[in-house]
Amino acid sequence: MTTATGRYLLSAPVVRSWGAGRVSPEALFAVGAVSQYLGAATAFELFDELGPGTVALLRVAGAGAVVVLLRRSWRRRWSYTELAWTAAFGAALASMNLFFYLAIERVPLGNSVAIEFIGPIAVAAFGTRTLRSGGALALAVGGVVALAGFAPPEAQLGALFSLIAGALWAGYIVLGHRVARAGMAVDGLGVGMLIGALVISPVGIADGAGGAGGLGAAVGAPLLLAGGVAAGVLSNVIPYGIDQLVMQRLARARFALLQALLPVTATLIGLVWLSQVPSVREVAGIVAVIAAIVINRESDPAPSDVVP
Predict the structure, then answer these.
(1) pLDDT in tens, 230-263
(2) How far is CA 104 from the centre of its chain?
(3) SS3 sequence, 93-119?
(4) How far apart are CA 129 and CA 123, in angstroms?
């Protein structure tokens, strides 16, 4: 965990005194993007031993425990409404993680991330309802067809899982803004992840009966368990903690636009770390999705749309 993120998780006032508020949200987001897909690459290397469901469970539960312990979130007074929003946010987040892992087990990391972007692009498109945003969404769909339409059946199944993850990602954006702007922020992130871990736990536990080692293998192997928790810190604690800070400073549609960095980051990490070399067709599909995000850009939001 980086010092910046660790201090943010400890308390919001510390962040202000440390000066994170003076760092541009774009720079913060770039740090989160690199961390997120380094975590995904780490998780991918655990699939053979544990299975993607178990790794997803370890990722979400481990990250949630880290955040709650650092924040001492049990000291916070939670209303029923806050818990309800936090539970919905956590369920969307954990399910998104699970389907993303099921996807990258079958398709390259960069491809899966690009396909997922149907969700965030749709959030921005339906938020603006313009011809431009509709064209951007159509371009993104074309990119997805290029990535998945001519792939073998196993890869098409991975693309379907990516699309499901993308729909859940849209829910994460909407619910994440609700949690961030209601003042729950990182406390909501930590508690939400623990709730989300309970939601996906049946799949994580069932992985042990499907050929992989499952949760029992992780408990019996400290290095595997540490790898799952590390994936959670890299992929959840750091980037999602940064997301909460960025969401407080940017409107929803602009946040979705900023995520154009993610397919590029995922493709580069897949290339360097996992030796996943994209074909010309796959590069064209990824570029189409990135172009769709850029075309769908909006002007800065009005001050009333951003939490100070």
Answers:
(1) 888 898 778 877 876 787 777 766 776 777 788 9
(2) 13
(3) HHHHHHHHHHHHCCCCHHHHHHHHCHH
(4) 10
